[in-house]
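Predict structure. Chain length: 307.
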Amino acid sequence: MNNYFKVLRPGINSTFQDLGRFGLQHLGIVASGCMDQLSFCNSNKLVDNKISEGALEFAYQGPLLEMNGENALVAISGKVNFNLIKKNGEIIKGKSNESFQISNGDKIDILSTINSVYGYFSIFGGFKIEEVKGSVSTLVKAKIGPNNGNKLKINDKIFFRKSHQTNKLKKIEFDFDRDNVIRVMKGLQVHYFSKNSQDDFFSKEYKVTKLTDRMGMRLEGIKLENTVNKNIKSEGITKGSIQVPGDGQPIILLSDHPTIGGYPKIANVITADYDKLVQKTPGTIIKFKLVNLAVAENAFQDYVRKF
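Prediction complete.
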C-alpha cells in the first residue's frame, strides 16, 4: 500500500529541509538546511527519528495535508496553530511539540505559526525524498533538492516510509526565547564604519522588515556611515553575516545566503542566537550585543546541550 499525504493547500513557503548540504560552497552551492535547528531536531525527536532526518519546514502558514495509507506517528514542532481533521469530520485542536497518531483519510491543517515564523512537520520513519549531494535540503532559487528543488504545490503527493509501527507518544516542553537581544561578534570590515556608527550599531534598536526570507533579513534603523568603501572584493560569506550596502541599512544573511558577497560586513550573529533571530517576525524590534569569542564559544556549548 502506498503511504502518502496529498497536498490540498501548499502553504506559503513549505519545503523539505535537513541540517544542510555542506562542503560545496566553493562550487557556489550554499549549505541551506533548516532555519531553526532546535525546532527541526525536536520534530524528529518527537517521532523517534534520528535528528538529521528530513522534515517539512513551513513559514507563517503551513500546508493542508490529507493522509492516505497506514496509521503513522507524526509531530509538529515550534509554536503552531493547527487542527487534526478526522475522516468523520471531527476537528481536534492540535498541540505543538507533541507526537500524535494520524489515520487514513485524516487531514492536518497547519493554520499559522504563533508570534514566530518557522515550524516543522516530521513523521516516524521519514519521508521518501531523494537526496541531492548528500542532503534533502531544498534550495528553491537554484532548484536543488527534492521535489525538483521546488516548494510544495497543490495536488503534490508526499510519500513516506513505513518501518515498524510505534505508538510511543512523546512531548517536549518548549518555548522560544522571547529576548530580542541578538549577540554578535565583530565582522571583517567593522573598521569601514565610523566610530559613531559602530557605537550606534551595537547599542541602538533595529526593526525587522517585511523584506525577509530564507536568504536574508533586511533591517531598518539608524543609517550606518561607511568611511572607507561601500564595496569590497567579493569574498566568501557565512550564515549570520551582517552586510551593510550603500543605503546604510544592515542585511543579515540567512540559511540560503549567496556563497560570496561584496558588501562590507559589520558583524556576525553567533551560532547560539541564530535560531532565536530567524523566528523574529516583521515589525519586531531587536538590538545587537557585541561579545567576544570566549562568550560565543560558551554560548555555543550551552546551545548544543539543548539537542
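Summary: Residues 4-159 form a domain with the Jelly Rolls fold (CATH 2.60.120).
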